[in-house]
């Protein structure tokens, strides 16, 4: 069976105030063309179809168009909700859409109930594990500790139990939206940390033939059977080195996996440039970036006048300016943002405690801070679900 694995469409999202709707429409056309031209047997979309719980109308219309075009091809499609989606909204009409070959799996209670498709070698069971927010699904899975590993492990126990009761030789695909150990994040994924731990081990997914992951925006191979497709388009400059693509996965009669990357159309390349403004404007080696979306980090010791206006005379698609004056590390004027770069909310809070008290928080206080951040994240998720 040939499967086209994609995820993290984020319909409705912009890139530094530039609308990505036309690029997203071009991607949908590319997806449909690939499914047709490469004789795909099933398309899987591993979450974050939309960028937010209540997407703009144009994004909903594009999603509707994608569903109609995929259904028109007669290629079955399996989709799950991600942490950006409203599971309830995305799942509306799922019973009717099943009849058209579009299978939306947004209810955690259905993790152990697969979509079963057939090929010349027999059945393939597709298990959809939507994003599982631990605080919201803990009771459903009967876990004592509300953490990502616990709830995802309980969901996979249901998958393995169902698979064990199916005919011998049934092959299996799992769709999941999670941060799996070994994956490389970018700046454009929403933090899903709970209890100080966001990642789950790859071993959670043992016992199935292929795991189609979503959430991280870079295409990655964690093992031959566990892969992230990444987002089809860039959504932050931290993705400048990404090759945007989908996985074309072949599953043979024995469940052996072979995979090929299929590139996605990207409107223009991304470039992260660094130097003084005069150097960036004069360096002939930067000519290849003149048509790119540019993030420029200016190292001038004094902020130059009208930097963006001057930068766009050479790089008309410059979108972001970062100021990082080159100073002695001991200089008291080193920016606050640079001191915080790469630090989590928890670390910033602990640093603040140390700053005002002269000593960092003890173990009990660290737990209090962690619980407070978890409560805020859970509250944000609950509000999105309620919308």
TrEMBL record:
Alphabetized SUPFAM superfamilies for the sequence: Metallo-dependent phosphatases
Ranges for domain Calcineurin-like phosphoesterase: 1-217
Protein name: Nuclease SbcCD subunit D
Pfam families from the UniProt entry: Metallophos, SbcD_C
Entry function: SbcCD cleaves DNA hairpin structures. These structures can inhibit DNA replication and are intermediates in certain DNA recombination reactions. The complex acts as a 3'->5' double strand exonuclease that can open hairpins. It also has a 5' single-strand endonuclease activity.
Domain Nuclease SbcCD subunit D C-terminal: 267-355
PANTHER family associated with the record: COMPONENT OF ATP-DEPENDENT DSDNA EXONUCLEASE, NUCLEASE SBCCD SUBUNIT D
